[in-house]
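Incident review: delayed structure delivery

Summary: a single-chain prediction request sat in the queue longer than the usual turnaround. Root cause was a stuck worker, restarted by the on-call engineer. No data loss occurred. The affected request and its eventual output are reproduced below so the record is complete for anyone auditing the incident later.

Affected input:
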Amino acid sequence: MLDTYVRLAGALSLALDDLLGGVTWTPGEIEFEIDAGYEVDFDVEAPDAT
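Output delivered after worker restart:
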């Protein structure tokens, strides 16, 4: 999405800082919920550390 902001700033003849001035962002949690109708189990053994 960064390229979209760069293109928009260029089209408006603005610096990217001016376009995004005053915008704040706080990272949050992202949750994905997928119901494919089946389950996948992974049985993976860790390699020996020796």
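Verification: The longest helix spans residues 2-11.
Action items: add queue-age alerting; document worker restart procedure.
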